[in-house]
Amino acid sequence: MTTNDTAFHAADAIFMAEQAVGRARHVVEELHTTINSALRVLDDAELDSAKARLSDRGNYYLETAGEHLGRLQRRCSDNAELTDELTGHLERASQAVADAHDLLRDADTTDPALARDVAQLKPRLAVVGEMVDLAKPMARLAAQHVESAHQAAQQVTPPSLLEPVSLERSIATAGKELGRADEDVRLLENVVDHAAASARQSAGIASEITDNARRRMAEHGRAEGVPRQAAPAVGSPVR
């Protein structure tokens, strides 16, 4: 593989990493929105549960609280799907970063401009890889807390609605788990934002590398396209 081929393949891998991290960042934002929505639904359930104790229409409010927890289960299911999507983007980013590292390691850096760009690129790309590796377990932890909230909501069945204490216990458990998930996703946002910033910087340097590679190819093509001057015959004057 020529130096230019290596540069192009490494740049492609970096662009893929940037794209995957960008998509992961978008999914994390959706996760945060979904968890906030679930917390609002839980607040409604908690309010109706309290009304059930204080109102003459206790059965009505218990039933309404149960409906809120049904909505909560749907929010949790949405969150699980988003987490699966996020994991896929992070895995693709991780693989792209690894591919870029391998290509840059084998790059011919005898060209001073390429050597400078590669030296600038490697630490930024390393940050992307580190942040992506950190984001994976954080995403799994957030998903575990959401699943625990989901299970707590599932424990509220029609018979249990007749027992306000069990309803309140389920609401409290779901609230605790969703609160933890919210903290996890806030941290996850910071990590993925950091990865995205480094990925953008890496992509900018990769663009410079490909531009320089194209310039070298163009110069080489022009050099080959210039016909060589015929050697003068022996003894003839050179004009």
Name a few traits of the molecule.
single chain, 239 residues, 4 helices, rod-shaped
Approximate shape: rod-shaped
CATH architecture: Up-down Bundle
Along the chain, the helix and strand elements come as HHHH
The CA-CA distance between the termini, in Å, is: 43 Å
Q: Could you tell me the strand content as a percent range?
A: under 5%
Would you tell me the overall average pLDDT? Answer: 86
Report the radius of gyration as a whole number of Å: 29 Å
Report the major sheet. Answer: none
CATH level-1 class: Mainly Alpha
CATH topology, which one?
Answer: Glutathione S-transferase Yfyf (Class Pi), Chain A, domain 2
User: Residue share in helices?
Assistant: over 70%
**Total domains:** 1
Poorly predicted regions are 228-239
Region (Disordered): 218-239
Compose a concise summary of this entry:
The protein is mostly helical and 239 residues long.
Describe the structure.
- The chain is 86% helix and 0% strand.
- The chain is rod-shaped.
- It is an all-alpha fold.
- The protein has a single domain (3-104, 112-214), classed as Glutathione S-transferase Yfyf (Class Pi), Chain A, domain 2.
- Residues 218-239 are annotated as: Disordered.
Please give the structural blueprint:
Blueprint lengths: L2 H52 L3 H48 L6 H43 L9 H62 L14
